[in-house]
Amino acid sequence: MKITKTLGAVALASAMAFAGAASAADDGKLKIGMSFQELNNPYFVTMQQAFEEAAKSLGAELVITDARHDVAKQISDVEDMLQQNIDILLLNPTDSVGIQSAVIDAKEAGVVTVAIDAQAEGPIDSFVGSKNYDAGVMAGEALAKALDGKGEVAILDGIPVVPILERVRGFEDAMKNYPDIKIVTKQNGQQDRAIALNVTENILQSAPELDGIFSVNDGGAMGALAAIEASGRDVKLVSVDGNPEAVEAIAKGDGPFIATSAQFPRDQIRVGIGIALAKFWGANVPSAIPIDVKLITKENAEGFSW
Known about the structure:
Blueprint: H1 6-26, E1 31-36, H2 42-58, E2 61-66, H3 71-83, E3 88-91, H4 100-108, E4 112-116, E5 126-130, H5 132-146, E6 151-157, H6 162-175, E7 181-188, H7 193-206, E8 210-215, H8 218-231, E9 236-241, H9 244-252, E10 257-262, H10 265-280, E11 288-291, E12 294-296
Parallel strand pairs: 1-2, 1-3, 3-4, 4-5, 5-11, 6-7, 6-8, 8-9, 9-10
Antiparallel strand pairs: 10-12
């Protein structure tokens, strides 16, 4: 998978940083913290695994925390990491704006800070995340194609962080190319399977002519899928993530779930660590590195994994 041409400019610096960091880690000097917005989600669990694998190869000491979607807890978690004298902070913010005070504190402590997956306000050193706007566009185009360019669709929204907002914006922009498709409602499933199931049931009841649903993530999409199947309605479903359970549902090829714009969480972590290490060892790094997404349909779902 192509990540982006930007990486070519920092590849050598990152490689040198890894080599230097390994040496520092041998002396017990390198400590890397990662604050997750949540770990009750296969997407972020995959990130955690990639983080642990990369750190093991460096011999670095790790500090991992789970904010459980509570920005106050995340700020406290970061403060605790700073007290533990971490060298690098990988930050997956649960609130892009609310986390700013913690980012400022990390900067003042001289800690290299890279935001992962979701942007963070404040003086971060770099941001590594998916092309979420593209993900929304891809999913929208797939849904429009499946509906032959006409019908009623709904948006199953989520928590208002930058990646989710960008996915919705991309989907809405894609729909503008199809004047015979109308977005009839946008409701918040909070990216949660159970909540999304209930919200989708309400959407189906309020929109008897509904033809399609865009979910901002696969967790919510699985709840929507259950509601659609229980209703017996012919409503097409598209989403974003590449969650193994969603890919399996798409691979069957005979149900409502027709496509997801897959992210690459392992790549985000690997690139994030590389950029952070490059900065730690004095390199100039890009302010943002976008990671490509890939549309998964029944034609290419078989064998795909994060």
